[in-house]
Design goal:
This protein is of the alpha+beta class. It contains two helices and ten strands. The relative contact order is 0.18.
Amino acid sequence: MDKLKLEIVTPRGSAFSGEVDEVFMAKGGMGEFGVLAGHAPLLTTLRIGAFITKTDGKPSYYFVGAGFAEVNQQGMVVLADSAERAEDIDVNRAMAAKQRAEALLAKKDSEDFAHVQSALDRAMERIRIAEEHGRK
């Protein structure tokens, strides 16, 4: 099987750079999608959620924040506001972020409801991914 060159880049730098067999369950703006080597060109937004790669039959799980993905002849580039491997997620930090967001939403007077809701969504997804696919 041909390998897919994958780059996951965040404002903090490279979260992953290498070759994988496939990407699956990526959450695009129009729904989930997968990519193999030789995939047709594609440009899509990414939603907050799990991003799964598979190499030599072994899956790797990531949390990926909102961003963009481009697939071209050279491979796949993901530009996301954040990305981290499931086993590197700081669950305590994510739980604290979740509690802060829930407290702000409970006040019902948040000036930036969408921003606070997004923070809550990110925290909950990070916790879910870490619990399901992080260190056992």
